[in-house]
Design the sequence.
């Protein structure tokens, strides 16, 4: 299916606005609840071409050290070699490889690199619209989600529970809310 620009979105390069963007995750904890976290330091670009089909490109770089779950002890553990090993692998990256439509949904295929492992993922993307902010910036908004198996990227630390199961779920949902500003 041909992919065209969503209504209101014009061709060009848009820079991710980290102050209005959230890259988050949701994981099950102790098999009974969900823990949410986010990475505060994200940068990247979204590029949209003239005409149809749209050969869009997306690149993002996320600083692992910026992880925040609301618990400094948990955040330190996530930055450690047990999980992300932020000292050795300071960034998570995403580079798109294609955009397609399926059943009315925008799907962005790309390569997600965590630590030294790169795996393909497909983000289900929702276009939020375009607006001009009070400072004259043209902003485009997008939301995206994807479920991943964290162990596929070498994030294998876990602890068995006495009641059965494990402390941290293998499946993690990545949730993105992106605001990007069109460059002149």
Sequence:
């Amino acid at each position: 299916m041909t992919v065209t620009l969503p209504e209101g979105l014009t061709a060009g390069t848009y820079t991710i606005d980290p102050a209005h963007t959230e890259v988050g995750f949701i994981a099950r904890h102790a098999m009974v609840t969900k823990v949410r976290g986010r990475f505060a330091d994200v940068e990247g670009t979204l590029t949209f071409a003239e005409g149809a089909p749209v050969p869009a490109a997306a690149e993002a770089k996320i600083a692992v050290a910026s992880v925040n779950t609301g618990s400094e002890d948990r955040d330190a553990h996530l930055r450690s070699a047990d999980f992300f090993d932020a000292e050795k692998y300071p960034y998570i990256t995403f580079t798109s490889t294609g955009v397609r439509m399926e059943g009315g949904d925008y799907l962005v295929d790309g390569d997600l690199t965590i630590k030294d492992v790169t795996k393909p993922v497909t983000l289900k993307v929702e276009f939020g619209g375009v607006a001009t902010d009070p400072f004259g910036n043209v902003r485009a908004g997008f939301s995206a989600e994807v479920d991943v198996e964290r162990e596929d990227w070498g994030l294998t630390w876990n602890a068995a529970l006495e009641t059965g199961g494990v402390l941290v779920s293998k499946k993690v949902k990545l949730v993105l809310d992106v605001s990007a500003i069109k460059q002149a």
Observations:
- Helices lie at 72-79.
- The domain at 12-182 is CATH 2.40.128.110 (Lipocalin).
